[in-house]
Design a protein that fits this description.
The chain is of the alpha/beta class. It is 25% helix and 23% strand. The strands form two sheets. It has an eight-stranded mixed barrel with strand order 1-2-3-5-6-7-8-9.
């Protein structure tokens, strides 16, 4: 199994290293895209995203709409395309390449306007598809289940379902294959599910609380861009030539012994 941490505050490089040392199952961290929406203010710094990816962990950036009003999310395909580009710049500023993007839809929001948020999430998923990145909307099981079966259904789901409530600890699930409220047949691939199974709790070495999620082994997290190692030019070779007439191209070097 693989574990993903989720928190609003930006962790430092030292905190990321401490969390990784404390939990050998930690594979990724979810952070919030700054400067887009932000009903809670803040968002992750580029330095925090870089610290996560520099540590060899995956990164899941999350867009957070301005409020619980679906009408205040982008209303056009262009608006969603621009939101995806905005998120890609955030990931790039942290030294990574965006391969996955989430959209935060809180349970009270979707409960109040299921149709409006469903339309917003499907438009978000369509924009991600045009950009060639995986779409992972976050929300309650009932909201995410409503996205199944559409032409623009998201690549995967990021489900917030805390069986023991917001504060009580919950035993670590061995897999996200079975999430309460989500049909097992939907988003059944190893790269299609993240299950946030426990709310805010303390982790050794961190100054903030985190939510914990169990993730599919194939989830395509954002990763650090690693430049290829320069390869030296091949060593020149010698060829013995017999008597004859030869043509030498411009720039060639001939050594006669």
């Amino acid at each position: 199994m693989l574990i993903q941490y989720d928190c609003w505050e930006s962790p430092t490089a030292a905190e990321v290293a401490a969390a990784k040392a404390d939990n050998s199952l930690l594979c990724a961290w979810q952070g919030y895209v700054p400067g887009w929406g932000r009903p809670y203010g803040g968002g992750w710094s580029a330095q925090a995203a870089r610290a996560v990816m520099d540590a060899g962990l995956g990164y899941l950036p999350l867009l957070v709409p301005n409020s619980g009003d679906a009408a205040q999310t982008p209303r056009t395909a262009q608006g969603w395309d621009e939101a995806v580009i905005f998120a890609a710049h955030h990931v790039a500023s942290g030294g990574g390449q965006m391969t996955i993007l989430g959209l935060n839809v809180e349970a009270p929001w979707s409960a109040a306007d299921m149709a409006g948020w469903r339309a917003a999430a499907l438009a978000f998923a369509a924009a991600c598809q045009r950009a060639g990145v995986d779409s992972f909307p976050y929300g309650s099981p009932s909201f995410l289940a409503s996205l199944a079966g559409s032409r623009d259904s998201p690549t995967g789901i990021y489900c917030g379902e805390w069986p023991n409530g917001a504060s009580a600890p919950y035993p670590l699930p061995t897999t996200p294959d079975t999430i309460p409220g989500i049909p097992d047949s939907e988003w059944a691939g190893s790269n299609q599910r993240v299950w946030q199974y426990q709310g805010g709790h303390q982790v050794s070495g961190l100054s903030m609380n985190v939510d914990s999620s169990v993730a599919g082994v194939g989830v395509k997290y954002c990763r650090k861009i690693v430049a290829p190692t320069p390869q030296p030019d091949p060593a020149p070779t010698s060829t013995a030539l017999g008597p004859g007439t030869y043509t030498v191209t411009a720039g060639a070097t001939i050594v006669i012994n």
